[in-house]
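Appendix B, record 7
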Amino acid sequence: MLPGRCRTTAKKVDGGWRITGQKVVDQPRPCEWGLATVRRPTRCAQHAGVTMMAIDMKAPGVTVNGLRGITGHAHFTEVFFDDVFVPDGDVVGDVNRGWLVRARPWATSAISIGGGSAAPTEFTAGD
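Structure tokens (predicted):
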């Protein structure tokens, strides 16, 4: 996912955040917790406005639907967030720096798959 395509929004409220939007994930089975990148409605650079959050999938306002293909199997899941409350403590990493959290596994896998260490392993806000 490119940071500019993040359409799920997060609005700061007392003690946490209100999340609204939709995600499609490649997890066909239900899970208790999910990770979501969300965007704050700010006028900052696209990388800087993204925050990563852990979301309780049983929270009020979370709706999960399997997306069935032509074979009848659900290989993807559609998740809707309708004004879901996420406590401040469930923010992963720093607010507005979620893209760095999201990108780090890609850098790690690129290094291990490529067998080298030439790929960058640290990111800055300017990346």
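Remarks on this record: The two ends are 16 Å apart (CA to CA). Residues 98-114 form the longest helix (17 residues).
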